[in-house]
Design brief:
Layout lengths: L16 H4 L20 E6 L2 E7 L5 H4 E6 L2 E14 L2 E14 L10 E5 L2 E7 L17
Length: about 140
């Protein structure tokens, strides 16, 4: 008789929200990188710009933050690693965060700016008039 244990992987009976609504991030992307607290992300459109703010305490924006834009999608990646040493004892904490959002219509991808102050990353995207205005489609009747 064998004593080999078989590991079973259980998947939740609930689907990921990103499977239902493609614009939402998956739950896995919302995992915290700082001490068990989720990262707070807010976005808003006002004064002719789209602005996204993410709390990223303990992250060095010069080395550990990567912001990309492609096909109307803005992606922020942040990675945190910390090492504490006291009295010959050391602790390591690390984690990563990725968030992708769809930019609003008229986003000027060539003039996006980002800055970080006191652990809050702010990404500003100027908005211009969309290239193609709204179009109405006539409904035809059959026969």
């Amino acid at each position: 008789m064998s004593n080999v244990a078989v590991q079973q992987h259980h998947r939740s009976s609930w689907p990921e929200m990103s499977d239902i609504f493609p614009g939402l991030p998956s739950w896995a992307n919302l995992r915290p990188i700082f001490g068990g607290h989720p990262i707070k992300v807010e976005d808003d459109i006002r004064d002719g710009k789209y602005e996204l703010k993410a709390e990223i305490p303990g992250v060095d924006p010069d080395k550990d933050v990567d912001i990309t834009v492609r096909n109307g999608m803005l992606t922020i990646k942040a990675e945190r690693s910390e090492k504490k040493e006291t009295n010959g004892h050391s602790e390591f904490s690390y984690g990563s965060f990725t968030r992708t959002v769809a930019l609003p219509s008229g986003a000027d991808e060539d003039h996006i700016k980002a800055h970080c102050e006191k652990g809050v990353l702010t990404v500003s995207v100027p908005l211009k008039e969309p290239k193609s205005p709204e179009k109405h489609i006539a409904v035809e009747r059959a026969g």
